[in-house]
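anyone seen this seq b4? input:
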Amino acid sequence: MYSIVEVPFHLGMEGIAAGKGPERLLRSGADRILAHRSIPAPVTHVRMRDLRSRGLDAVLDINRMLRYAVKDAVEQETVPVVLAGNCNSCLGTLAGIPEARTGVVWFDRHPDFHTPETSRSGNVEGMSLAIVAGHCHADLRERVGMTEAIAEENIVLAGIFDVEPGERERLEASWVSVHASDSLGLLPVALDRLRDRVDSVYLHIDTDFLERVERPERLIALVRETLPVAAVGVTNYNPELDPSGEWERAILSAIAALVSVTH
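predicted toks r here
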């Protein structure tokens, strides 16, 4: 049984750019897609209208709120599906999952594996997976409540096709299992191996990976059918860039793969 946590923020600001994506997906029936016995998935809204912090402080405050929302969802014996503007929502989501042997399956166009030393922009979004792996911003991760980083060998990164200098070298030197968008044949093997090392996984779906992967819903169904999923993140959908609704329909199909068998 699934529940939904809506986190309508982009870079700490509410309801702009990708921060509009969660509400749009809810209006289009994401809760009904995840229905249990014809009852729509319950929705928790993370709202911080009086948020005065900016930058990393705002990211911290939002993720702390998200942590408690995810924790409550897990205690209600549901699998939280976090509809969020940004990928840094992974921190609050992972912090809300009970500490255990947790792995990460991360679908993304970009690896998000920069550190402040390699990033040209300095944008924390491009560092999200590196933070999860314990490579940078440890203080931010720990203050959110994610006390332990995820071991590199327990991370599967798939669907990437836009890798920047610095990230490529860091990935090649890591134990992360990396699968480019045009080379996904060994992904089932990687997931099988991950199953032997973890009790459950956080499944991260940055929606920009949908652009170049054929039948992405099959990949999401594969994860669900191979590993226990503790929580899901669906991020980075900006409806302003989707006038035809094509991207939205692809995202909803991906979400549907969480509950249906796809052949």
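The chain has one domain: 2-256. The CA atoms of residues 122 and 211 lie 25 Å apart. kinda curious what u guys think
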